[in-house]
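Researcher: Please predict.
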Amino acid sequence: MRSRVAPGTFDGWSEEAWTDMLLDADRVIATDPLAGETTGIALLVSNAGVTGASAGDSEAWVVGRERHDALTTDQRRKRLGTGKAAPIAFHRASWSGILLVATDGLFSYAKPAALCEILAGGDLQAAAHRLVASVRLPSGAFPDDVTVALVRGLSRPM
């Protein structure tokens, strides 16, 4: 994937470029007998918006003060490495708030309102820790893998 986005060779604002990249990743992973399956979200974030594609069960949201916008709401759940992934592109020309990209270990076990409340604070590092802690079981374990990435909005309001 890194070689696909090399400067001058990849149109980061092309939704088709992102879906093609994930389709290629699906084919490559599926041909490796030692590889498994994975979810994938690839995206470009700048002051001109956010564009990308997803496959699998991770999600990307833009969380604002009063609502969230699920960028990956229409994605298909077939994971990369199955040889059957069907990546779905997304694009927002403008957005504000916080971009939340996380695995299903967060989204499957936390309520949307709780996620939005956690992200309402100003400190992204503290919010990331609170998001992960919000799905920790009383035993200290997690019901599923949890990975979280946060980006503060760079462009104008949604």
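Model: The first strand starts at residue 40 and ends at 46.
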